[in-house]
Amino acid sequence: MPKIMKTLTIAGSDSSGGAGIQADLKTFEEYGTYGFSALTTIVTMDPDNGWHHNVYPVDSALVAEQLKTVFAGGPVDAMKTGMLGSVDIVRVAEQAIKSNQQKNVVIDPVMVCKGEDEVLNPESAEAIRDLLLPLATVVTPNLFEAGVLSGLGKLTSVEDMKEAARKIHGLGAQNVVVKGGKALGGDRAIDVFFDGKDFTVLETDKIEPAYNHGAGCTFAAAITGGLANGLSVADAVAKAKDFVSAAIRSGYQFNEYVGPVFHGGYRLNR
Strands 6-14 and 78-81, how do they pair? Predict the structure, then answer.
């Protein structure tokens, strides 16, 4: 039997199933890896209030206990972070990465819930920037997050994305993917990958209707699965782009507010 590669997500729970820890574990399974999890937040969405998001952080000591359980078997082959919820939880994640000498670390710097437009916790965003980016093999901000991390504010072009990637790389991340997705103008879904030397622009046609809830979490989890399986960072990012595009194409309308990606789309449509 081939070796089973181990993956870890430190992230929040999305009861609708499209994003968060649910998306990560589904993606890990699609990549043939064994997924571990440490739950940091519970997010609920209120259908009686325009799908407003409520975020409930888990106590940081409980997050640390979960990670102690995970790392009882030693470092995993790759890991990612998602919504962390508080500065204390960011510090717990930092300590777990450092104390276990964890390699292949994907930082998805989640700052908002889909449909929301304010940073959930500005202090947590700063902690992610200062404590986790220097530990990141790859960091995967969307346009909003890249604007916050880089200090450039609103990004509206590929050149803006490249400049943000340069600045974020300067904060310590080894590789940066700035996700334009559907938020960038035009008919192409564009992401920019920067390895510290060269830029690669990844493009696909925009998919309509765009059932893309969970696309960002799924993308980071797919990179994590690729790294665990021995892909180079560039190849893991390129495959993740294909994986997420297939997941969006196979997504569906959950209710009047949201349509999630379908994580089995890449496998089922090959």
Answer: parallel
Angstrom distance (rounded) from CA 55 to CA 78: 27
pLDDT for position 201: 97
135 forms beta bridges with none
Judged by DSSP in three states, 170 sits in: helix
Question: Other C-beta atoms within 10 Å of 176: how many?
Answer: 30
> Distance of CA 144 to CAs 56, 184, 214, Å?
22, 11, 16
Q: Left (φ > 0), alpha (ψ -120 to 50) or beta: where does 85 sit?
A: left
Adjacency order of strands within the sheet including 6-14: 52-57, 34-46, 6-14, 78-81, 105-107, 138-139, 176-181, 188-194, 199-205
| pLDDT per residue as tens digits for the range 235-248 | 999 999 999 999 99
- Asked, as a colleague might, if the bond just before 209 is cis with ω within 30 of 0, I would say yes
DSSP 3-state of 225: helix
Q: Residue 162 and residue 155: Cα distance in Å, rounded?
A: 10
Specify the DSSP element, H or E, that contains 13. strand 6-14
Give the helix ranges, DSSP H, for 111-264: 122-127, 143-150, 158-170, 215-228, 233-249
- Amino acid letter for position 230: G
CB 79 within 8 Å of CB 34? no
